[in-house]
């Protein structure tokens, strides 16, 4: 079946140079950006119920920009002043650079992973093993990273600072797409919550990440596009490859 309309369950890219827009132009498809999930911050009251005080920690671990936003929001709401001596451990350069929204970057101790994985930060953490780490996570964090920290006897505390909830569709919103693109298991949960009678039929489903792919299959749905793979390391590369087969490579006609 030729793909004409694709729903990407993420916010619309800020840059017009996004590969998604290039794909839309290349194959003449309509690309719609509509998140199935949204992030809500925990209130200061909910945060305090975890018996965690940001002021008690000398280092913080960030695996997402969202975590940075809610860490500094909760610090302000709980009236904690972040000292200049605070150390920051981030799982990517992009996340580390995002800290500039809240701190004077060049005056801080900031460590960033080059692989996007927390494991890559372990040598830096072990060099600063005397620090007390607070790990800013969501309420549904899978705990895989925690196992690695436990094994290496890192002194840390997981602190939930935000939650992921379904971004409900309005009564007039239709699911009239030829392809649905998902990036988290929660996105699949939201799909089935919003459309309990969902019948996949010829609708193509694309999923990024092992957990998301598993969620698609566990829901009894057909997984048509899987990423990342050695051949398609990104979701856009996987979509491009799929459309080349279904819609035909531009210029073939």
Average of the residue pLDDT scores:
92
- The helix count comes to 9
The total beta strand count reads: 11
Strand content: 15-25%
Helix content: 25-40%
Pattern of helices and strands = EHEEHEHEHEHEHEEHEHEH
Low-confidence stretches: none
Q: Biggest sheet: strands, sense, closure?
A: 6 strands, mixed
**Structural class designation:** alpha/beta
What is the CA-based Rg, rounded? 21 Å
Strand order of the largest sheet: 3-8-7-4-5-6
Shape: elongated
Q: Please report the distance between the alpha carbons of the first and last residues.
A: 17 Å
Structural overview:
- The chain is an alpha/beta fold.
- The protein has nine helices and eleven strands.
- A six-stranded mixed sheet has the order 3-8-7-4-5-6. Strands 2-1-9-10-11 form a five-stranded parallel sheet, with helices on both faces.
- It is elongated and about 60 Å long.
- The mean pLDDT is 92.
Main attributes of the structure:
elongated; alpha/beta; six-stranded mixed beta sheet; five-stranded parallel beta sheet; 253 residues
Summarize it.
The protein is built from nine helices and eleven strands. The protein has helices at 19-27, 44-48, 65-77, 93-98, 122-127, 144-151, 185-194, 210-218, 235-246; strands at residues 5-8, 30-33, 37-41, 59-62, 87-90, 109-112, 133-138, 156-166, 179-182, 204-208, 225-227. The strands form two sheets. Strands 3-8-7-4-5-6 form a six-stranded mixed β-sheet. A five-stranded parallel β-sheet has the order 2-1-9-10-11, with helices on both faces.
């Amino acid at each position: 079946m030729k793909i004409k309309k694709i729903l990407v369950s993420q916010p619309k890219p800020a840059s017009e140079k996004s590969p998604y827009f290039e794909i839309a132009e290349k194959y003449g498809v309509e690309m719609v950006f509509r998140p199935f999930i949204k992030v809500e911050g925990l209130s200061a009251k909910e945060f305090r119920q975890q018996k965690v005080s940001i002021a008690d920690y000398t280092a913080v671990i960030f695996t997402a920009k969202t975590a940075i936003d809610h860490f500094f929001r909760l610090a302000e709401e709980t009236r904690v002043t972040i000292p200049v001596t605070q150390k920051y451990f981030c799982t990517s350069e992009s996340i580390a650079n995002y800290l500039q929204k809240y701190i004077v970057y060049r005056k801080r101790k900031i460590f960033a992973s080059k692989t996007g994985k927390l494991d890559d930060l372990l040598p830096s953490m072990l060099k600063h093993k005397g620090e007390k780490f607070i790990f800013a996570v969501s309420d549904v964090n899978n705990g895989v990273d925690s196992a690695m920290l436990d094994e290496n006897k890192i002194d840390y505390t997981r602190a939930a600072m935000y939650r992921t909830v379904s971004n409900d569709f309005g009564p007039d919103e239709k699911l009239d797409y030829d392809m649905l693109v998902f990036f988290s298991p929660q996105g699949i949960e939201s799909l089935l919550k919003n459309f309990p009678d969902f019948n996949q039929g010829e609708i193509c489903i694309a999923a990024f990440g092992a957990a998301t792919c598993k969620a698609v299959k566990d829901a009894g749905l057909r997984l048509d596009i899987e990423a990342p793979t050695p051949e398609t390391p990104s979701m856009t590369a996987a979509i491009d490859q799929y459309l080349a087969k279904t819609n035909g490579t531009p210029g073939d006609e």
